[in-house]
């Protein structure tokens, strides 16, 4: 019911003007597609947040139990996470890297691969991250750097026992690894 009440409180004039503009610029099917996505996000964003809080959030006891289990492991394999990056991924990159750095399991490496000439802000960010955490590795591949070429370059960087692919914008729960 709360979601429906929130739906009623939306600024309708602005929404109707935007809908009219979408119909003029892109057509009715585009409006229907965008409305479907917006409504789904409105309805499910709150319920997904509740699900995360209920089933995918650790309390201190659970976190301590996981840390004790890790300490008792006879071997601690390295998990190589690799992420191909393009120039427009800078916005999403920081959040993804923070979720990797917050992992309870500390034996991981993050292999970031970018094209030969990334934008200067992205290049500075990547090198700063690699300098701050020795588990983060950065490689550049020659142009034209296709997605597959970046993945292959990341695999060459990886030294872990297991590998996993991440994308900029992905978020890992702290106990994902």
Description:
By secondary structure, the protein is an alpha/beta fold. Helices cover 55% and strands 13% of the residues. A 4-stranded parallel beta sheet has the order 3-2-1-4, sandwiched between helices. α2 packs across α3. The longest helix has 28 residues. The model has no long low-confidence stretch (mean pLDDT 80).
User: What structural class do the secondary elements suggest?
Assistant: alpha/beta
Helix share of residues?
Answer: 55-70%
- Please compute the radius of gyration using only Cα atoms: 21 Å
Please provide the ordered H/E string of secondary-structure elements: HHHHEHEHEHE
Distance between the termini: 37 Å
Biggest pleated sheet: 4 strands, parallel
Strand runs, count: 4
Strand order of the largest sheet: 3-2-1-4
The global form is flat
Strand content: 5-15%
Low-pLDDT residue intervals, each spanning 5 or more residues = none
Question: What is the residue-mean pLDDT, rounded to a whole number?
Answer: 80
* Number of helices, where a helix is a run of at least 4 consecutive DSSP H or I residues: 7
């Amino acid at each position: 019911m709360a979601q429906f009440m929130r739906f009623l409180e939306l600024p309708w004039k602005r929404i109707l003007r935007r809908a009219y503009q979408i119909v003029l610029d892109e057509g009715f099917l585009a409006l229907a597609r965008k409305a479907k996505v917006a409504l789904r996000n409105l309805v499910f964003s709150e319920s997904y947040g509740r699900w995360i809080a209920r089933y995918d959030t650790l309390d201190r006891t659970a976190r301590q139990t996981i840390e004790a289990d890790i300490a008792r492991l006879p071997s601690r394999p390295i998990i190589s996470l690799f992420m191909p990056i393009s120039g427009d991924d800078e916005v999403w990159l920081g959040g993804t890297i923070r979720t990797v750095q917050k992992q309870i399991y500390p034996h991981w490496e993050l292999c970031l691969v970018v094209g030969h000439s990334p934008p200067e802000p992205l290049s500075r960010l990547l090198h700063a991250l690699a300098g701050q955490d020795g588990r983060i590795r950065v490689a550049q591949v020659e142009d034209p750097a296709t997605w597959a070429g970046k993945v292959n370059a990341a695999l060459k960087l990886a030294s872990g026992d297991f590998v996993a692919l991440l994308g900029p914008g992905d978020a890992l729960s702290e106990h994902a690894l």
